[in-house]
Amino acid sequence: MLSENEIIEVANTYLTALEPKIGEPLILPQELMIKKDYGIYFIYHSKKYWETKNWEEKLLGNAPFLVEKSTGKIIEFGTNRSMEEYIKEYEAGKYS
Predict the structure, then answer these.
(1) Fewest CB within 10 A of the end CB: N or C in the chain?
(2) Which parts of the sequence belong to the Immunity protein domain (predicted)?
(3) Is the pTM of this model over 0.90?
């Protein structure tokens, strides 16, 4: 079982790997984290957007993801449904 700090470290490592593909610094806002008994859901943004809230800096296709507490596995979701729907699908076993 991973601690909350270890889960966040896994998420930050994942984000660091995405930065070269996206071409700019990314951020995991703590206030957007959704903590569950089985892991933490993360929503990331470009650092520039998060600091300025300028819509021209907003990323497209920045899909949310989950880091599972028991395994450290990263589950990527899509962008075409709400976060609540992805959570329900995960909890129903769709991503296992």
Answers:
(1) C
(2) 10-82
(3) yes
